[in-house]
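Following up on my earlier message about uracil. Here are the inputs again, as you asked, copied directly from the submission form:
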Amino acid sequence: MTQLDKKSLLEWYIEAGVDEATADAPVNYFATAPSLRGDVIDEAIQQAPKALDRVAALATTSPSTSTLHHSPAAAGAAARELADACQTLEALEAAVRAFDGCAIKKTANKTVFSDGNPKARVMIIGEAPGGQEDIKGIPFCGPSGLLLDRMLAAIGLDRTSVYISNTVFWRPPGNRQPSIEETGICLPFVEKHIALVAPALLILSGGTATNTLLKKDQSISRLRGKFYDYSNGYLPAPIPTTLMYHPSYLLRSPLQKRLAWADLLMIKKHLNDKGIL
Ligand code: URA
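Thanks, got it. Here's what our run produced:
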């Protein structure tokens, strides 16, 4: 392979979102090339129609699994069916881990479900796992997590007094923002997650969590500094909810930390006034 080939291969990887090597040991895919002989390829081509027949047969006999990949709506409906059936956090976690309907799971290393105390009275929902989270399987364990921990500590909170999750459970390739389809597919799980934790205060971190759950299209700058009632079909009553700038935005725009500090003080006052902590 020439230097130019290597460079364009790397550029193609980056464009496709492959921006880091995450396995423990390198895999030499060139070592497998000799097995791709012409006769092997011919056999694979001959087998393909049979494989397609098997998929078609499965689609008619098992609608809840086979429709997953046909459309985001079908995947969302399957997620809803699963979420409806989960009566405990353990069941929900198992259902999310087993769920194959969200395409970003295929490129992720780990399912990132939650961290913190499931009995906490404060629940924080972020956007999506990033690189570190994808390696460790823990939400907010990278640079933005460090800032989140410092923000929480400033008002006397830590991971024993909060519970943390995200709007999607897998890292989008290249750390891009999850698409509306991806957040839509995961939404039933997120809604059930909130209902099973039943926090006294829900905090949405960043625009993706805010738009997905509060279904408001305005910017965080317009929405911040207030409390909202959050409801979903699993909740017996609305949950007081507020939002704050995402820590990774604050890392990029440190001047906004002033406003984030005001929001943290508002949260602390609410927790004290309502006797939540
Ligand atoms: N950003 C998020 O929104 N969530 C994480 O878990 C990590 C970074």
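One observation from looking it over: Confidence is low (pLDDT under 50) at residues 32-37, 47-68. Hope that helps, and feel free to reply on this thread.
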